[in-house]
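Pasting as-is:
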Amino acid sequence: MGSLLGSGFFLVLVVAFIMLFLHFVPLGLWISALAADVHVSIVTLIGMRMRRVPPAKIILPLIKSNKAGLDVQVNQLEAHYLAGGNVDKVVDALIAAHRAQIPLSFERSAAIDLAGRDVLEAVQMSVNPKVIETPIVSAVAKNGIELKIKARVTVRANIDRLVGGAGEPTIIARVGEGIVTTVGSSESHNDVLANPDDISKTVLDKGLDAGTAFEILSIDIADVDVGRNIGAQLQTDQAEADKRIAQAKAEERRAMAVAKEQEMKAYTQEMEAKVVEAQSEVPHAMAEALRSGNLGVMDYYNLNNVQADTDMRQAISQAGGDGKIQAPGTPKPVK
């Protein structure tokens, strides 16, 4: 019984040792590399395991590059993987560039990949240019007519400027700016509608691909639509604003006139109050003058006669329509 347990324990140890050995020594990859005439030592594969680098992600791209006739070393691929790059995509880009006879070194390809750009797509775009369609660009000619323009920009990737070069949004923004500038310098929108290719020529001559990761091959105007009459709308808005300003100034003058009128009415009422007050003091003054002897009886009668004559003249001036003279203080007859 004890011998059976001992032999079973030994078998488990043997199986565990074989599994551990196969984990650290990927014999399948080593045999595949030898079959593909790629010389990789067992020590190198074990070192990859120790450095936590999956050997399959290094050996398979290495075999692929070797079959394509590229001179790529294991250390280069492993270093790129440890730097966080995509080894398989870099090798595919190198193979595509080699087939298309585009000069591209491993260092340049790895730098493009680490910069966050798709190096394989860049190589493919160098072989097969890409068409970028801009959004609708609104531009206004000198006569105030708005034009809505859509353009298609054919670009080719510039591998030498992929690192540090601007992307597609910059190309779209520059083309839009060029369209707005070109249309804005046109005397009439009819000139643009008659010769839309002038926009392409003018914009293309500005060198819009400077500092970008692309080379602009052509700019084609896809669609031109006539929009609003911006000039007329601006003139209408200006006239409306002028009218409101004039109305505000007129209202200001009216308010000032009303205030002045109210001020004059207040002043007139104040003067009338002072006159009434002065008239109320006259009898007291005359009585005081009679008591003090400054005014005689005859003087008093003469004043009354003068007042009576004044009242009679007023009555004559206010005579009714029938020619009769009304007594002072009597109302006019109702017609």
